[in-house]
Amino acid sequence: MAEELNTEKLGEDVVRVLKTIYDPEIPVDIYELGLIYDVFVNENDDVKILMTLTSPNCPVAESLPQEVKEKAASLDWVNECEVELTFDPAWSQELMSEEAKLELGML
Fold first, then answer.
1. Which of 38, 65, 88, 105 gives a 20 to 30 Å CA spacing to 94?
2. What CA–CA distance (Å, rounded) separates 91 from 52?
3. Res. 68: pLDDT tops 90
4. pTM, two decimal places
C-alpha cells in the first residue's frame, strides 16, 4: 500500500513540474495544453512520459521533449526518466483543459 502511495505521489510531483513548462508560442503550460498524454511511474521510481507536440513540424520538436525529460529527472525521487513522443492521436484543441481554453479566451 505504501508503495502505491509513493508511485502516486511521484506521479503527482512529475505533473507539478511539467506544469512549469510552457509552450513557447502559446502562453499555457504543456500539461494544461494537453501535450502530456500520460505519466507512468513504476515501483523502481522510473518515470515514463508519453507526450505529443501541437504539430510534427513544431519549432521545439527537439528541445521540448528534452526539457520535459530534464525537469522530470531533476526530481529527487526519480530513478530513470524516459520521454516518448507520439503523434497518435494527433494533438487537437479538444485535448486542452478548461483552464487552458479559458486562459486563451476560447470559453
1. 65
2. 7
3. yes
4. 0.90
